What we know:
Elements: H1 2-22, E1 46-47, E2 50-53, E3 58-61, E4 68-69, E5 79-85, E6 88-96, E7 111-113, E8 116-127, E9 130-143, E10 146-157, H2 161-174, E11 176-177
Antiparallel strand pairs: 1-4, 2-3, 3-11, 5-6, 6-10, 7-8, 8-9, 9-10
Amino acid sequence: MACQKAQTVTIMMIAVVLMPITSPPDAHQTDSQRRPGKDASDEPVKYHGRYTNIDYGFSVEIPTGLTGEGNVPDAPNHGFTIQLREKSVVRVDASYENAPDSPYPFGRFNALLGPLKAERKSWREDKGGVKWLHYSIAARAFDRGTPIIYTIQLDTTSEHQDEAVSVFEALVSSFRKVRVRP
């Protein structure tokens, strides 16, 4: 009988110790900090508010009223896209620079993306009768010796330029580095 009580106490102690590990996500996390499980649909993941990506070590604030769309669940989590209008989109991306023989072609570092030296540029392009305006900022950081390229890019037309540039600028100014998942 005494041996059975000791086993019961041991099992109860293990359950108490494991409870925080198996508890649901912190109620203070935003939707963008929770990853859906394997039973999620094939719909893109939707993000609002502060988007934090611990796979690549960054976060940005998605402006109020806008929705970022990421990859479908279980696909790589590089970032997200905000479709502003039919011909106006902002992409926020981070990727490991895996090819040492063909590194990202940085020109001149002329800006900051959070704490990182960055290259900021803009250009125009006529494509299929549409006059496109492009704005981009890119920076490089390192995670355990491997380079990560962070990019925020806007592709829009002149009719949506004012609205689109304000969203681009809000994302750029809210960029923060965070710890990469161990």
